[in-house]
Specification:
Blueprint (H helix, E strand, L loop, with lengths): L7 E4 L9 E6 L3 E6 L5 E5 H7 E6 L3
């Protein structure tokens, strides 16, 4: 899946805080995403994130 820094994504499962909306903060071999509700940052492998994304809501241009 193609995404850039600043994009808003929706994940298949909700975060512990109840939100499923995230913002992409950093891209590389590992991707850092930030929860839009509680601000928690999570780093994971790019291919792991590809499996967890439901949709891209807002593209950053």
């Amino acid at each position: 899946m193609k995404y850039d820094v600043g994009d808003k994504i929706i994940t298949k499962k909700q975060h512990v805080c109840g939100s499923d909306s995230w913002t992409i903060e950093r891209i590389g071999a590992e991707v850092r995403i930030k929860c839009d509700k509680c601000g928690r940052e999570v780093m994971m492998l790019k291919m792991e994130l590809d499996r967890k994304i439901k949709s891209i809501v807002e593209k950053n241009r």
